[in-house]
Design a protein that fits this description.
This protein is an alpha/beta fold. Helix content is 38%, strand content 17%. The structure holds the ligand O=P(O)(O)OC[C@H]1O[C@H](O[C@H]2O[C@H](CO)[C@@H](O)[C@H](O)[C@H]2O)[C@H](O)[C@@H](O)[C@@H]1O and magnesium ion (MG).
């Protein structure tokens, strides 16, 4: 009998592309699978986890652009003949239910569309072929299919042309203009990005089991954490744990803020429980962006590895941010780099450059890799040190990127060629060119042979996340490798993420070509002992992919354990289709809206937070429906609410200063519920606030009729936070005696009487004969029949003070539970929707969340018929191929798929004839 093996922890690893280059061979209708190039560190980590005894890894990734291996003329002819033969024997009872991918755009007259409705350029894949691919790749790898467009590269557009440049400090003017020759603009590109992320969420939905840990990689999938929260958290038992690792640099706030969709991106990302970066600087930049754009707070602590970690609170939810530099598979590198085949290649290189020092450079050919800077430094080196002329060769291998034809890359190519020519003509001769530039991909064995043959490796990137060439070079030159190449130095740019790891390499500023030239000279003049000492130190600094993966996994498992023990609740996204149905079925609807941060976004100046035309239109429509009663319950004062709401729409009830004042629907009078309250406290509170205002430039006091609010949003964040804590402390010393509440708002501290709060107002409005005028001074009638009270309540708020409203609704609901079970609607509830505005991770008693005022407006727009569900829903249901379910294009796709199936089976019947 075999002992029961302990169950492995399942981990769903999400990468932007599976580690394959996939081609469809048209002659056999079969797949050709080759390993993908690039991302070697990440793919090594996948390999490592795949063999783990502790974890069961399931990988989710896009197929990448699938290419077609087209038929030769002879093959085509043969196939046509076969098809004709088949057509004449056509069996009409073919029951194959395979469907091909959509998007012939219904354009059956276009030149490249066959009479049978098929677009020749497009890739059609049947269900059978999809299953076939699954059987050809690792069984735990799950392809995300995104085939709905002929231009498959569109899925990379936003990530590679907008996010990537900005994250590498390249401000790209094309963020707002057309990106594609086919006319799709930045917006389309953003929607593609959203759909790309949604397709992953859908695929994970098919695979996910409670208890799974999800690990997401890199900037193609920045929205996925939040999409997954929305998808899975409707089940409150579900302790979803999401880790995210960012492989690229994260820019400083001054750059990040230039991204048009900066807030959406942060909102998407903060759905994760743990976000990690390549180094401390990147994590600090991220924390700073969240602070400034999401009003998050953070505390820097040391983790159990002695590294800095930020414990953040974003929208009230917890998030850990830290850094953990990725490594390389050192064992594999050693075994692959020291084979007889590589030995002979090394000999050939050394032979070719006999008597010369070899500098090796290997970079992706893009502007941030610093190839220009490298060439300039090399040119300076030859100019400054004539003794090295004809003694040194720079072998620069530049691997082309996917967007080789982009204007930036074409310009770069010209510049590089000019520089190479100029150096070679000045310092070379007929027999020798000091720069050997190879603009090509090279196989791994050639790459390793170059690293082995090199006397020096020169990395001058002006920005990168982690330069794995640096790590691979140091590995190959390590003591353990081979004495013939041990101890050769590395010159590394301080702007490369790897410089924070390989601290003992020769670190240079690539913009300073004189300094780099001097470093090259110094490197060549190091004694053997000096070289070996440096090498031993840097080798000790190379992180292995195994330890990186283990550390990451340990920590995310730790988060998962904590999350289980704390029973951390995450709030599900509001289910808008159900809300809409419920709304339509209801007759006595009550809307309870907070104002700031709910109906309008939070802005620096409170006076500038005014309603938009769209908000007015939606509220107008809502309030015109006799089945609706609308209230705005705000911390604002009467003057503000009157100016922007009372004077504009008489059908809206108002409550000011967190419930101190109330103005009923259709009346101009305000009722003061705090009339009898002693206001002498205001003088003292005002004095303390004034003192702190003097100490905090940018802060100010908002004086309302009852409440006093100290605002510090415009202050320097750190000073503002510090003095807000101080103010709270000073106020709490005496406010208890006055029965006052000191409330922490969004970058404000408010003081108001304890006995009033928004919840009290909500209680009144619900326990009230629906549609009749309010008598706010009358006691509540809690015996009111349920049929006279609202049968639909949508209550929205973003702040701590709005929790009082949600709490009241929850308490009324529990009061009705058991008592009025026969009055439940067909969704099994009483139509109560306490909804917080903020992230899913926020601590709240609300039952659902909407991320921001934009989503609030979209949701209200949905109720009054202003927007389609698709625009409003935020997440979209996709079919297995990544098409929007039941959409117009999916119907067209169905037609195309039938045509394709018929074509494959040789039927002469065209769908157009049907
Ligand atoms: O209950 P609410 O309607 O949400 O009002 C709460 C407070 O909101 C206002 O301050 C907040 O919003 C401002 C505008 O976006 C922002 O500048 C400020 O930093 C926020 O704290 C308002 O000024 C307060 O009076 C309200 O009590
Ligand atoms: Mg608010």
């Amino acid at each position: 009998m075999t002992a029961n093996k302990p169950k492995k922890q399942r981990i769903i690893n999400c990468v932007s592309q599976l580690p394959y280059k996939i081609t469809l061979d048209e002659s056999s209708d079969d797949w050709i699978i080759n390993p993908a190039t690039g991302n070697s560190a990440l793919y090594s980590s996948l390999d490592y986890l795949q063999d783990s005894d502790e974890y069961e890894q399931i990988v989710v990734g896009w197929t990448g652009e699938i290419s077609k291996k087209t038929l030769t003329k002879a093959e085509l002819l043969k196939k046509q003949l076969e098809e004709e033969k088949l057509t004449s024997n056509n069996s009409k009872d073919n029951k194959n239910d395979s469907t091909a991918n959509e998007n012939n755009n219904g354009n059956n007259n276009s030149n490249n569309v066959h009479g049978n409705g098929l677009d020749e350029d497009k890739l059609y894949v049947t269900n059978e072929q999809m299953n076939n691919l699954k059987s050809k790749i690792n069984k735990n790898y799950n392809p995300v299919w995104l085939l709905r467009s002929r231009k498959q590269s569109r899925w990379r557009n936003y990530a590679e042309n907008i996010i990537w440049p900005l994250f590498h400090y390249i401000l790209n003017p094309s963020t707002e203009v057309d990106l594609d020759s086919d006319g799709s603009d930045a917006n389309n590109s953003w929607y593609d990005y959203v759909k790309f992320n949604e397709a992953y969420a859908m695929k994970i939905g098919e695979i996910y089991q409670p208890g799974d840990i999800i690990w997401i990689h890199d900037y193609y999938l920045l929205l996925l954490p939040q999409l997954l929260r929305m998808k899975f958290n409707s089940d409150s038992e579900n302790n979803l744990v999401i880790g995210y690792f960012h492989h690229a640099p994260w820019p400083s706030y001054e750059y990040f803020r230039c991204l048009p969709r900066r807030k959406e991106i942060l909102d998407g990302l903060v759905g994760a429980d743990r976000i990690s970066f390549q180094n401390e600087q990147f994590s600090r930049h991220f924390v700073s962006s969240c602070k400034r754009l999401l009003d998050s707070t953070s505390k820097k602590v040391k983790n159990d590895r002695g590294k800095d970690q930020y414990n953040m609170s974003v929208y009230g939810g917890d998030l850990i941010v830290d850094s953990s530099p990725i490594g390389v598979d050192t064992d594999k590198i050693m075994s692959e780099a020291f084979t007889p085949d590589v030995d002979s290649k090394v000999d050939a290189i050394r032979q070719a450059y006999q008597g010369k020092k070899i500098i090796i450079g290997r970079d992706r050919f893009d502007p941030v890799r610093g190839i220009i800077q490298k060439l300039r430094a090399f040119e300076t080196f030859l100019a400054m040190y004539p003794e090295w002329r004809e003694q040194v060769v720079l072998i620069q291998v530049s691997s082309p990127t996917l967007n080789r034809e982009s204007p930036q890359n074409i310009r770069l190519e010209q510049q590089v060629n000019e520089l190479v020519n100029s150096i070679n003509s000045q310092y070379g001769n007929l027999n020798f060119a000091p720069v050997q530039h190879y603009y090509m991909r090279i196989p791994k064995d050639v790459y390793f042979s170059l690293l082995r043959a090199a006397n020096l490796c020169l990395i001058t990137s002006v920005r990168d996340g982690m330069n794995t060439t640096a790590l691979e070079y140091v590995t190959i030159k390590s003591h353990d490798s081979n004495s013939s190449c041990y101890g050769m130095p590395l010159i590394l740019s301080e702007f490369s993420g790897s410089s924070s790891v390989l601290k003992d390499a020769i670190i240079v500023n690539p913009w300073d070509s004189v300094a780099v030239a001097k470093s090259i000279n110094n490197a060549f003049n190091l004694t053997k002992v000096q070289r070996e000492t440096i090498q031993d130190k840097t080798w000790a600094e190379v992180p292995s992919i195994k330890s990186w993966t283990d550390t990451y996994m340990d920590q995310i498992v730790e988060v998962s354990k904590q999350s289980e023990s704390q029973d951390r609740k995450k709030t599900p996204a509001l289910n808008r289709p159900v809300l809409l149905e419920n709304y339509k079925a209801a007759n006595r609807r009550l809307f309870l809206f907070d104002y700031d941060g709910t109906l309008t976004p939070i802005v620096k100046d409170p006076a500038a937070a005014i309603p938009t035309a769209r908000l007015y239109t939606i509220m107008e429509k809502l309030s015109q429906d006799p089945k609706n009663q609308i209230w705005i319950i705000s911390g604002r004062d009467q003057v503000f609410l009157n100016k922007w709401w009372g004077s504009k729409n008489k059908h809206i009830g108002l409550s000011a200063e967190h419930g101190c004042f109330v103005k009923d629907i259709g009346t101009p009078e305000w009722v003061n519920l705090a009339k009898k309250f002693d206001m002498s406290w205001q003088v003292r509170v005002n004095k303390v606030m004034e003192d702190l205002t003097t100490k905090t430039p940018g802060s100010f006091i908002e004086r309302k009729e009852v409440a006093l609010t100290w605002h510090y949003r415009a202050a320097v964040p750190e000073l503002g936070d510090y003095n807000a804590t101080e103010l709270k402390r000073l106020l709490l010393e005496f406010t208890e005696d006055f029965d006052l509440d000191v409330m922490e708002g969004k970058k404000n501290i408010e003081v108001r009487p304890k006995f009033v709060n928004k919840g009290e107002i909500v209680k009144r409005l619900v326990w009230h004969k629906y549609g009749t005028p309010q008598d706010l001074l009358k006691p509540l009638d809690q015996k009111l029949p349920i049929d006279e009270m609202p049968d639909f309540i949508l209550c929205l708020g973003d702040d701590f003070t709005d929790e009082d409203m949600f709490r009241q609704l929850n308490s009324i609901e529990s009061h009705w539970n058991g008592k009025y079970d026969d009055k439940r609607n067909r969704w099994g509830n009483f139509g109560f929707y306490p909804v917080t505005v903020g992230s899913a991770a926020k601590v709240t008693v609300a039952k659902a969340h909407l991320t921001d005022p934009q989503q609030v407006l979209d949701t209200l727009g949905l109720l009054v018929g202003n927007v389609s569900l698709f625009q409003s829903a935020g997440t979209v249901e996709l079919d297995a191929r990544g098409h929007v379910k039941d959409s117009e294009s999916s119907k067209k796709s169905h037609a195309a798929s039938v045509a394709y199936t018929l074509k494959r089976t040789g039927s002469s019947t065209s769908i157009n004839k049907k």
